[in-house]
Amino acid sequence: MSAITINAQKPNHFITTADYTAEQLLDLVNRAIQFKVESKYSHPKARTDRPLAGKTMALLFSKRSTRTRVATETAVGYLGGNAMFLGGQDIQLGVNESLLDTTRVVSSMVDGIMARVGGHDEIETLAKESAVPVINALSDKYHPTQILADLMTIHEYYHHKKNNVAKGVYSAHTQHPRETLNGLKVAWVGDANNILQEILVAFPKCGISVSAACPPGYVCDQDVIDIAQADAKKTGASVVFTTSPEEAIKDCDIIVTDTWVSMGQEEEKKKRLAEFKGYQVTNDLAKRGGAKADWVFMHCLPRKPEEVDDEVFYSDRSLVFPEAENRKWTILSVVDALMVRGGI
Ligand code: CP
Ligand code: NVA
């Protein structure tokens, strides 16, 4: 009888885009576009191979989610696998069992883990202890699958615009994202949170400049700032921080914001609403700040009206709904890379 060899190689994870090069991220975007085209626009539409048949991904979520959960469950299903949602009320984690023990047990039975956690140290523990690939579905420091979807959305928008493609005709796959993204300027107006931090470690290395306005006292982690500035130096992009929304917006192509009160910060709501006064994204703010005439708006959602008014949010400038849909195609691309192809 021949011996069984156990493959003890460390699994690949997707914890932050900071761990990957621009080429690797844009390859993931290109693959996401292929999935979108094959699923929505090709004939016949049905995919015949089921590369994740017999495999399971656990969704270990300690916080609420609409987009990330639906995107992941549908992505795993698309590849023929089974997605098992394990919310905070479902399992022993945090009540009767530690994260370390939970990770060892769950990862011994599944083929991948998508985890939404509190502190970033929790996702790092998961990645260290897991026997299978772990994807960060949001931590207090980073949100990598969101910013991958944002790169795809920006690429699609500018590809269509530059190539003068009619609305409803899909064609984001003829130009490399590097060409569409390089040289753009993104203005952030809002909290110094996980979304801004993921933008900072992803956009400058793709050649996108970032100017961020956050209220006094709201600052990003120094290691994140260091990564952003080092990446910007290499690509010629710029990274600027200010407390003035108008200053951040000057000459920008895209204005991005997020909630002023992230999950877990509910007790600070009153204080935050007061301190973010003047930060609501409106057409008037964009005009006062001197955004480019054809500026567009992005938001990871869910959205509250205090951070962006309805006039902008539901306008033709707003990319928020394609951005939400692209969570599915980009998560599909990451799951395919980690669970089917063996790495990014
Ligand atoms: N943007 C985002 O992560 O949304 P959900 O919290 O609904 O997953
Ligand atoms: N900053 C938000 C993002 C939600 C997708 C939060 O952490 O709650």
From TrEMBL:
The keyword Transferase applies. GO terms for cellular component: cytosol; mitochondrion; ornithine carbamoyltransferase inhibitor complex. This is ornithine carbamoyltransferase. Residues 182-335 form the Aspartate/ornithine carbamoyltransferase Asp/Orn-binding domain. It is an enzyme of class 2 (transferase). Pathway: Amino-acid biosynthesis; L-arginine biosynthesis; L-arginine from L-ornithine and carbamoyl phosphate: step 1/3. SUPFAM superfamilies: Aspartate/ornithine carbamoyltransferase. It holds the Pfam family OTCace_N. Transmembrane segments: none annotated. Residues 13-156 form the Aspartate/ornithine carbamoyltransferase carbamoyl-P binding domain. One of its GO terms (biological process) is citrulline biosynthetic process. Belongs to the aspartate/ornithine carbamoyltransferase superfamily. OTCase family. Its EC number is 2.1.3.3. The keyword rRNA processing does not apply. GO terms for molecular function: amino acid binding; ornithine carbamoyltransferase activity. Keywords: Amino-acid biosynthesis, Arginine biosynthesis, Transferase.
